[in-house]
Amino acid sequence: MQLSPEQCRAARGLLDWTQESLAARAGVSRSTVRDFERHRHALHRGTESLLIRTLQDAGIILLPADEHGPGVRIR
Question: What per-residue string of b and e applies to 60-70 under the rule 16 or more CB within 10 Å gives b?
C-alpha cells in the first residue's frame, strides 16, 4: 500500500491530529510529514511504513486507488 499526501492529510483530519501529533506517534520529524503532505518529497519506504502503521493502529483504513482515486475511512 502506498500512502498519498492527500490520504495522509485526510487521515489526520479524521483523527483530529496535527502534523506534530502524527510525527510524534510515528517517530518521525514534523518536517517529514509537512514536506510529504506539500508534495515536496516522497517518503522513504521505512518512513511510509511507520506512518501507515501509526494511522492504521489509530483506526484508519487506507483505501487503494480506484476510478475515483485513493481514499480513507475510520473504523
Answer: bebeeeeeeeb
